[in-house]
Specification:
By secondary structure, the protein is mainly α. The protein is built from 13 helices and no strands.
Length: about 230
């Protein structure tokens, strides 16, 4: 059956790529109905994405839910993230949170950290600092090469806005230590600004120096900020 499922899935993707939404939806539905354990869940997620793009939110939710209920190790968590993003766009914060938690709980090495980061953004925007901090910590603890440093940087920004200088500094340092080409430099710059405002010129210079040495696009501004400390 996997051969038929694979063929049907490729047909559906081809139709979607050519802009034949109705045909693609029908093709994806046939793959789902086939009961193929591999391509059925994949088709359900892709169908959900396609329906969401065309503002068919109810049908998209149903497709994502079907993929989640399949128990597929890859497509279930992937569907949960897409469902959470859809619910978030619709203003259903509680539903989005539940879906993100579902993805995090799966332990998937890619979708779990992504969901933790997105949940942190959602809760931070809602003013739930404790919840955002916990979500970002889960992303950071995953050691994911992209989402962990991004979470550390975002957590630093969140805590800095709250006036928690030690907490923000620790988060920025976590992002810097990752060596990420973008997030480390942005965290270094933000740390320099934070320490400058907090009356620690020596620490600010050291932070700006790291940004300058990185060659990041913020290097020129870091250099100007550093010069203002002399």
């Amino acid at each position: 059956m996997s051969g038929d499922g694979a063929e049907g899935f490729e047909v559906a993707r081809g139709l979607a790529g050519r802009g034949d939404v109705r045909g693609a939806c029908a093709a994806y539905a046939r793959v789902i109905a086939s009961g193929d354990v591999e391509y059925g869940p994949r088709a359900a997620v892709d169908l959900g994405q396609l329906l969401a793009e065309w503002d068919q939110a109810d049908d998209a939710r149903a497709a994502f839910a079907q993929a989640m209920e399949s128990g597929h190790a890859e497509q279930g968590p992937r569907a949960a993230v897409h469902l959470a993003q859809l619910l978030e766009r619709e203003g259903d914060a509680d539903g989005a949170r539940d879906a993100y938690e579902r993805a995090i709980g799966s332990g998937h090495r890619e979708h779990g950290p992504k969901a933790a980061f997105d949940l942190g953004v959602l809760l931070g925007a809602a003013g739930d600092v404790a919840g955002a901090r916990a979500a970002y910590a889960r992303a950071m603890d995953s050691a994911h090469p992209e989402h962990a440093p991004a979470a550390a940087f975002n957590l630093g920004l969140l805590l800095a806005r709250r006036g928690d200088v030690p907490g923000a500094r620790a988060a920025y340092e976590r992002a810097i230590s990752s060596g990420h080409a973008d997030h480390a430099a942005r965290a270094g710059f933000a740390l320099g600004v934070l320490l400058k405002r907090d009356g620690d010129p020596e620490g600010a210079r050291a932070a700006f120096d790291r940004v300058i040495e990185s060659g990041h696009t913020l290097a020129a501004e870091a250099s100007r900020q550093r010069t203002s400390l002399d």
